[in-house]
Amino acid sequence: MEVHAVAVFGAGQMGSGIAQVLARAEIEVVMVDVEQRFVDQGMASIAANLGRLAEKGKLPAAERDATLARVRATTKPIEVAGCDLVIEAIIEDRKLKRDLFHELDAMLPREVIFASNTSSISITSLASATKRAGRFVGMHFFHPVPVMKLVEVIRGAKTSGETVKLVTDLAVRLGKTPVEVRDFPGFVSNRLLMVYLNEAMKALQEGVATKEAIDTVAKLGFNHPMGPLELADYIGLDTCLNILEVLHEGFKDPRFEPSPILRKMVENGFLGRKSGRGFYEYGGTSHA
Question: 4 an active-site residue?
């Protein structure tokens, strides 16, 4: 089976990025979100990204226009009929994801494959909301999707080998490097990353060093392009909190207990770059 058309649920940073790379690989895309303003923002993001590539001479104008034309945005899930594959990229909430997959399972033919872009939630748990566990898989892209090469392919308890092969081949077609991992909380990427980010937050809260010093240690000492607190702001502090809670629930390990400063910042609406304030203030002075 070859993928010709894909439905992407979620038009945010991840969903629009996934839609963009699919369209550049000459795959027809239907991008769905719950409100028109969200799909409009997603389309604007894709257009802006493609426009920058064209301005830099990295994408011919005709290819830019053809790529954009392959993406159709809608608020109506029924319009995904005819797609070979569904990729879910909504917020990191188990119930919302399960509810969406349950609804789609009743609506779409049994041969359609379901993939979740979840960064931490059990694929087996999500698949159990459907009657197609063999055709359900994790396909975890990384932000920014058009730039980052890695895709974690997560095999649930009942995911078939054919399903894993199909999404692995698709990832290669998109110019990505797929890595198959087992269905454990946080998979590999966030199991490693979140301990690092959480410890940086604890060090800040304990007064070990300033946020600038902590980030400088990581950048100059570990040769990381971005410090852990900058990176947490970039990911989204609410997303970091959600992932840590999944890890803590799954492993019952104190390493994954979210730092109090993270909980407080999320409660106050300081979510990082997307809200304008996190550990740093964007467009102004830092506040944490």
Answer: no
Give the pLDDT means over successive 10-residue stretches in the chain (288 positions).
95 97 98 97 98 96 97 96 97 95 97 97 97 98 96 98 98 98 96 97 98 98 97 95 95 96 97 95 58
Which residue is catalytic, options 140, 198, 230, 242? 140
Task: Answer yes or no: 45 catalytic.
Answer: no
Which pLDDT value is given to residue 288?
41
Domains of the chain plus CATH, in order, are 5-182 (3.40.50.720), 189-275 (1.10.1040.10)
Specify the pLDDT at position 150.
98
Q: Is 152 in the active site?
A: yes
Annotated catalytic residue: which of 28, 88, 92, 152? 152
Kindly give the pairing relationship between strand 85-88 and strand 113-116: parallel
For residue 190, indicate whether it is catalytic.
yes
Active site residue: 119, 122, 242, 259, which one?
119
Q: pLDDT at position 286, please?
A: 39
User: Choosing from 190, 198, 242, 259, which is the catalytic residue?
Assistant: 190
Nearest to 86 by CA among 53, 45, 116, 107: 116
